[in-house]
Design a protein that fits this description.
Layout: E1 7-13, E2 18-23, E3 28-32, H1 33-38, H2 43-46, E4 63-69, E5 73-78, E6 86-88, H3 89-97, H4 99-113
Antiparallel strand pairs: 1-2, 2-3, 4-5, 5-6
Length: about 120
């Protein structure tokens, strides 16, 4: 099994609503709070064994706190009250390296559903 990169720094920039993440493989990423919210690994967002629930109106969402979960994950608390997703290091890295693809999939799903990013 391939080693999962471990974050060496996770920095919240609340003004720009971004999370900057550096990994121990010298890769650095910037993820919007909106992206992290709509791809939350929580059961509420992912669905319970079925398709995930499309998150709408999250354009202005921000992270209010980052809580460590052991040595393997963080929990992000969002200003819309969401806070049940546990972002393991492998999930966080997956979201980072697939950001462009996942974001386009999200925008396509919104459009197909006739929904919006606007609150």
């Amino acid at each position: 099994m391939e080693d999962i990169p471990i974050p060496t720094e996770i920095k919240l920039l609340q003004k720009s609503k971004e999370l900057h993440i550096s990994f121990d493989n010298d890769k650095h990423f910037s993820l919007s709070c909106e992206y992290l919210r709509v791809y939350s690994p929580s059961a509420e967002v992912q669905g319970h064994g079925g398709p995930g629930i499309l998150q709408t109106g999250k354009k202005n969402v921000n992270v209010t706190a980052i809580e460590p979960v052991g040595n393997y994950a963080v929990k992000l608390l969002f200003d819309d009250g969401h806070g049940t997703g546990i972002y393991s290091w492998d999930k966080l890295y997956e979201l980072c390296i697939n950001q462009e693809t996942y974001w386009q999939q999200y925008l396509t799903r919104l459009e197909q559903a006739g929904e919006s990013r606007e609150p």
